């Protein structure tokens, strides 16, 4: 059983994959650690700095040990973990259930114990564990869900035996519905294929665009909660394939869905818009709310989604997402979704900062692909 106290709220940080793929090295990591601190992101809660696929050498060494790529990581992983810790951050690493990672590098099948021990010895705090090249033939008659439980169980036990607390991120793309059995084996579980940096894509492929991924994850609210979170994959904000409105939508929806917030852009070169989105404190507070509830999709008509997320202390977060390509308006009945006992309700728009008293129903305009978010609280007088 993983320790749920490692993820009382959805994990936050940075991961190399979305922006850099396997073009990663220790300089990128060191500069990212510096940027997270300088940009004030650490103090907002973005504390994990995570390596994804590509950190390891093409083969294990003569003793069967997994080794960092000597060109890209000449000093190894330990010093990077030390640098992260010195900066008040935590270091994440990546491996895979199978013989090889998705990019064909050595992975942990049959090496779970020694790899977990190496990660612990290096000072790693977070392990993302992928699902490529799994030898299903070794498990005749077993379903994917069963094999996943065996293999994620093995790495969970190996990490526990290695003795260093590590947050476990299960990355099996929703195969076998991990939200039904992932709690206890990991602190977060991917619910979908990989996200692509696009709002909507006409061709269907293995990976999913923002609106597709949102819809797959939005209906899984009952499975998220403190200690274990639905993971609709990482943030694409800042990577260039979507408009600012669409990136605001990703941030809004991910915060409402209590999703892990793993930044996937180049933090050394953020635009003003990217910075403004990723540092929205009030949205982050919705994601990190201690009650730990994922928003419910309360209404879903003609491409307009209404999401409501109960918050600790009785406030409610409300999201209005216009999935369509045309501007729209939706009548929100504030009294119905507001904190129950309140006679009057304060609605604070978390993107504009505007705050007003609301009552009854009101037509709320919403731009194409936009998500508006309000925090409702009881008006005190
Ligand atoms: C899979 C995962 C991604 C990423 C890549 C790395 O596709 O789902 O998040 O880790 O592998 O190869």
Summary?
The protein is α/β, with parallel strands linked by helices and 381 residues long. It has helices at 17-20, 26-38, 41-44, 78-86, 112-122, 144-162, 210-218, 244-256, 272-278, 281-287, 334-337; strands spanning 12-15, 48-50, 90-96, 126-130, 167-170, 188-190, 229-231, 261-263, 296-301, 304-310, 316-322, 328-333, 345-349, 355-358, 361-366, 371-378. Helix 8 packs parallel to helix 10.
Low-confidence stretches: none
Estimate the helix proportion, in percent.
25-40%
Secondary-structure element order, N to C: EHHHEHEHEHEEHEHEHHEEEEHEEEE
CATH homologous superfamily grouping of the largest domain: Aldolase class I
The computed structural class is: alpha/beta
Rough outline: globular
Number of discrete helical segments: 11
What amount of the residues lies in strands?
15-25%
CATH T-level fold name of the largest domain: TIM Barrel
